[in-house]
Amino acid sequence: MATEVTVPVLGESITEATLGEWLKQPGEAVAADEPIASLETDKVALEVPAPEAGVMGEHKVAVGDTVEVGAVITTIESGSGSAAKAAPAPAQAKDDGKAEAKPESKAESKPEEPDASITLSPSVRRLVLEHGVDPSKISGTGKDGRLTKADVEQYVKSGAKQPPLAEKGTASGAQTPAPAAATAASGNRNEERVRMTRLRQTVARRLKEAQETAALLTTFNDVDMSAVIETRSKYKDLFAKKHGVKLGFMGFFVKAACMALKDVPSVNAQIDGEEIVYHDYVDISVAVSAPQGLVVPVIRNAEAMSFADVENSIGDFGKRAKDGSLTMEDMKGGTFTISNGGVFGSLMSTPIINPPQSAVLGLHRIEDRAVVVDGEVVVRPMMYLALSYDHRLIDGREAVNFLVRIKEAIEDPARLLIDL
User: Which class is 3-77 in CATH?
Assistant: First the structure.
C-alpha cells in the first residue's frame, strides 16, 4: 500500500512553493523522517521528510514546478527497496545465429557516474562529474553530512582531485578522443542558463521595491575597535568556558544597537500607510549567508538578552542557515537589521533596508589605519559603519545620532553595562 507525500504547511500566508530538488529517486529505500525533497519558498528552503519507511515511489512533479500546500508530490511504497533503483536492462538483440553478444569492454564503458547511494543535488552532481572527483572522499558540511557545492569546490581547490574518470574509446583500439578540457582551452566560450530560485527572485523583487518605495539615504561613520578587541581578547577564554560559546564582535554591536535604538526610537519604527508604528522591543534581523542566498533570521527581544544569549542565537542561525534547516518562523518579523559584510572583506557599502523596516546597519572589515588621537598620529584598528535608512521617517540628525551612539558604545564598552 502506498502512502502519499504532500506539501506541508509552509507558514503564515505562504500557499505555494517551488520544488527545488529531489533528494531520493524512485526505487530507493527511505527511512521514516528522512528528507526526500527540498521545497523553496519566498524566504527559505524546506525539506520534506518521508512519513514512513519504505520505497520511494514515482515523482509526480518535476524540479522547478510550483506546488501548492497539500498537493501530492510522490508516494512511499511498502517494501525494503534498494540503495538505488536499478537501471533498466538494455534491449537484447534477437539471436540471428551470427554472433553471440559480448560483454561490454572496459574501453567501451561510459564515464563513471557518482555512487548512486550517495544523495547529491543536481548542481553538486554536475560539479562532481565536471571535476572528476569521488564524492565518497569528500567530507560533507550540509545537513546529515550531505555534500554542498562549496564542499566540492573547496576539495578541488585543495588539489585533492582524483585521477580522470574512464575515457570513452572504441573496441577496435582506435585512439581515444582528446579530453574535453583541451577543447575548452582552445578558446571555446561556453554559457550556462540557470533558473533563479524562488528565494533569489523574492530577494530581487523586495530589494527593488525598497528602492522604489523608500527614500533611501546612507550615513557613514567610523569606529575604533581597539577597546572591543582588547575586551574580547581578555575574556574570550573565560566566556567560552562559562557559556560554551565564543565571544564574537556581533554580540557587542547587537547590544550597542539595542541601546541606540532605545535612544533614537524612529530607527526602530516603521511606516504603515499614513501611520508610524513605534516598537518598545527590539527584534534584530541578522543577515546570514546561506547556500541558496542571503537570509535574515530574527533575534527576538534582543534588548533583554545577555551577550551569551546573543552569541548563541547567532551561532545557531549560522549553522542552520548552512544546513538549510531555518524555518519560516525564524524569518518572521524584525524591527532592525544588522548586515556584516566585513566577514567577506568589504571595506564600505550602502546596504538596502529590509522592508517594512526603516533602517539597516552595515558593518565592514577591520583594518589598521592612521588616525589622529590627542594631536598625535597613531595606528588603530578601524571599521567603517554605514546606516541606510528611509528618509521619509528618519531625519539626518537622528541617523547621525544613532551612529554616534553605536560608536560611543563600541569605543567604550563599559557604556553597555551602565546604559550610557
Answer: mainly beta
